[in-house]
Amino acid sequence: MKTATIVLGLLVFAATSCKTINPGEIGLKIVRGKLQPENFTEGRHRSGLGAHFVKFSTRIKELSVKLTLPTREGMEAKVDLTLLYHLKPESLHNIYLTLGMKYENEIILNNFSAQARETCLNYGAMDLMMQRDALEKSIFDNLNTDIGHYGFVIDQVLVRYIDVPDEIDHAIEKKVLSEQQAKQQEIEILAQKRVTESTIDKERKQMQFAAEKQRLEKESSIEQDRLQENYALEKQKTEAERSLIEAIAAKKTKDLENSTITNMSIKLKSIEVMKSLANSANTKIIITDGKTPLTLREPQ
Q1: Is residue 64 located within the same domain as residue 48?
Q2: pLDDT, tens only, 24-36
Q3: Are residues 143 and 64 both part of a single domain?
Q4: Burial class (CB in 10 A: 0-12, 13-18, 19+), 83
Q5: 216 close to 208: Cβ distance less than 8 angstroms
Q6: Which of 51, 58, 110, 267 could be disulfide-bonded to 47 (CB atoms 3.0-4.6 Å)?
Q7: Which residues pair with 296 in a beta bridge?
Q8: What band does 260 get if pLDDT is binned at 50, 70 and 90?
Q9: 258, 251 Cβ separation under 8 angstroms
C-alpha cells in the first residue's frame, strides 16, 4: 500500500512537472526566479522543481475601443477604432522584463488611445468623415513609432465608425452634393469639349480634303496643259521634219528631173544635128562616142 502511494505520488509529480505549450504560443521558463534565455515552442516541456513557464500568444490580436475624440474645431466625434497587432518572438524576453504581462492595457491600449486623440486634433470634423483612410494611416504610423521598438508589430488600424454632430453631417451632405454637381458639370463640359473638338477635327479634315483635291486638280490641269504643249510641240516638230523631208525629196526629184531633161535634150539636139548633117550636101566628118555631144570637122 505504501509502495502504491509512492508510485502514485511520483506519477502526479511527473505529470505536474511538465507544461504544455500550445500552437501559436511561446513559453519563457523561470527557474528559481531567474528567466532562462531559451524560447520554448509548442509541445511538452519539463519544468522541474522551482521552475514554471510564462506563456505568450504570437497570434494576431484584436483590440477595439470606443473613444470620444476632439477635432481641430473643438468639436467632439465618437469614433470606434480597432487595432490588430502581434508580438515578435525574439522580443518576448524584453517585453516580459520591461513591461510584464499587463503590456496590452498599460502600453498598447494607452498609446493607441493617446495617438488617436492626438491625430484627430489635426483633422476637422468634416475631414474625419471624408479622409478616413488618411486618419487610419496616420494613427498606424505614429503608433508604430511609439511602441514598435518594444517588440510589437502593428498590423492594421481600422476606423469602423465615426459619429459627428448633426451640423457636420448636413455640411458633409451639402459638400458631397456640391462636389457631385461640380463633377457632373465637369463631365458635361468635357463632353461638350469633345463634341467641339470632334466638329473642329471633322471640319479641318474636310478643309484638308478640299485643299488636297484642289491641289491634285490643279496639278492634273497643269500636267494636261504640259502634255498638250508637248504634244503640240512634238506635232510641230514632226510636221517640220516631214515638211523638210518632203522639201528635200522634192528638191532631189527636181534635181533628178533637171539632170535627166538636160541630158536627154543634149542627146536629142545631137540627133537632130546629125540628121541635119546627114541631109546636108556638104561632106562632114562626125566624131562621137554616142554619149558625149558630137564634134564636127570639115574634111581638108
Answers
A1: no
A2: 999 999 998 899 9
A3: yes
A4: buried
A5: no
A6: 51
A7: 286
A8: low
A9: no
Between CA 280 and CA 103 the distance in angstroms is 177
Which DSSP string do the residues of 68-81 spell out, in sequence order? EEE-TTS-EEEEEE
Distance (Å, rounded) from C-alpha 155 to C-alpha 91? 16
Closest CA to 168 of 71, 28, 44: 71
State the average pLDDT over residues 59-87.
91
Closest CA to 72 of 138, 119, 123, 135: 123
Report yes or no on 155 lying in a domain: yes
Could you report the per-residue pLDDT of 109-144, keeping only the tens digit for each? 999 999 999 999 998 888 888 888 999 999 999 999
Lowest-confidence region among 4-18, 174-188, 198-212: 4-18
Q: What is the three-state SS of 219-238? A: HHHHHHHHHHHHHHHHHHHH
Helix extents (H) in the chain:
2-16, 92-99, 103, 110-120, 125-130, 132-147, 166-279
- According to DSSP, residue 149 is labeled G
Please give the Cα distance from 149 to 91 (Å, whole number).
9
**Which residue range(s) make up the domain with 97?**
60-164
d(CA 107, CA 150): 10
**CATH code (residue 90):** 3.30.479.30
The arithmetic mean of pLDDT across residues 165-191, rounded, is: 72
Spatial contact of 28 and 96, defined as CB atoms under 8 Å apart = yes
The cell numbers describing 189, all together, are 463640359
Q: How many domains does the chain have?
A: 2
CA dihedral sign of residues 56, 145, 137, 129? positive
Pair (47, 113) in one structural domain: no
